[in-house]
Design a protein that fits this description.
- By secondary structure, the chain is an all-alpha fold.
- Helix content is 76%, strand content 2%.
- It contains nine helices and two strands.
- Strands 1-2 form a two-stranded antiparallel ribbon.
- The protein starts with a helix and ends with a helix.
- The C terminus is likely disordered.
Length: 249
Amino acid sequence: MFTKSIPSLFTVANLFLGIVAIILVFPENAKPEIAAMMVIIAMLMDGVDGRVARALNAQSEFGKELDSLSDVISFGVAPAFIMYSVAFQQLNPAPAWIITALFPICGALRLARFNVVSGMPGYFIGLPIPAAGGVVATLALFHKEIPISVLLTSTLVLSLLMVSTIKYPNFKKIGIPKNAIWVVPLIVVISVVLGIVFPDQLSKILFIPLVLYALYGLKKNVDRRLPGRKKRKRRKELQEEGVQSEHSA
């Protein structure tokens, strides 16, 4: 019975870290660097729970629903609060509140679609909310270097990417062998220690791969729509058809 509950423990840890991240951006705490690191560690928990569930054959509808609810808090609400607290508070309330609210709303819509619509093998449809939340949480740490207009636009674009039909690679299917489960707590502990000791530096470093992942799907979508690419694809298909005809003859 306990074995079946292990994946849910990681999911609850994900939710707990999201709540801590929100608390850490309250004015009396004002620690956005550590709050962003909590979101990053929550991403690790989110990546581990599904793999552990598959390794232990403990997948369930309960775990799936708990995971979605946790993700809305940890990767929707928490990153939006971090960005609002460090960058948007001085703005006109209308755009600041709307864009802050739009981010978790789009995240919730994306998760709802994920739960009821069959995706494509090996791909997510729309930017996954953990990646979007990770970008927003770490992007907020650059609020002194980046104009607020860019932060607003970036948050809006990430919100729209979550509810888009753009395909993103799915790395969640990479499993963990059952005999290697013991390594997971070790990785989690090391990540938490590094996150607490170097919250600012580590968060900013992790911003780079996260934003590249978000841009990857956008680039692939643009490439697919370019006329030249369509012509090359059609030419390749015709060549392949010609080769197959020769072989069949």
